[in-house]
Task: structure prediction
Amino acid sequence: MSEEIQADTGSQEASPAISFNESLSEDIRNDPSVLKFTDANAMAKSYISLSNMIGNDNVKIPRESATPDEWRAVYNKLGAPDNADAYQFEGLDDGAATALRQQAYDAGLTQAQANKMVEFYNGQMSGFTDDFNSTAEQSVSENKAALEQEWGKAFEQNVNIAARTAKYLLGSTDMFDEIQLADGSYLGDSPEIVKLFHKLGQEFGEDKIIGETTELVMTPDQADRKIAELMAPGTPYRDERHPEHDHYVEEVTKLFEQKVG
Result:
């Protein structure tokens, strides 16, 4: 009897082990989302994680065809204010603040994101202002140097004549300190404007513009022309025996001294 039992037992074949995937029904076992799991524990953990996510207040990204209102709902869910006026910015004038609020609202930014935008804007404007002021200062300096080079010791005198002429003709010179040019300097800093009113002053007559004056200082160019006139051939300067020779020599010497300062 025992031999028969032993024989029967030995004749039975062991059942082959099946994989986790094969244990599933045929209609789901080949789904890509299932194939990545190798055991029931892994699938259970994934299911628990997914359940937790679904329970949270998640944001669903709209499709490309989404309407502005649909996107607005997403922005609000992410923390963007309900309207542009809700943004709070410090250190900006009203015009800039209003424009930036609208831009931030249209872009769906949160307050923190909008603050970053304003920080960048302020940095850019600060750099622009510094560069603009630096350019203006350089322009004013170069314009003044050019006039000083051209007018020499007559610079202060001629600038004064130009200013008095402008006031005489216009009644007020406020515009010269209010109108700003493209390079950052003001109208009154322009060499062309200064020379224009100086020339007008000469045409009207300095005595009429600035009252009784002593002899005016010549510019280097005027001094050169006067020197050439005094030293021209046939003048007393060329004739040592002429009674005015010394006077001519003295005048020429003064003009040269004036030129060299």
User: Anything to note?
Assistant: The mean pLDDT is 81. The longest helix spans residues 111-151.
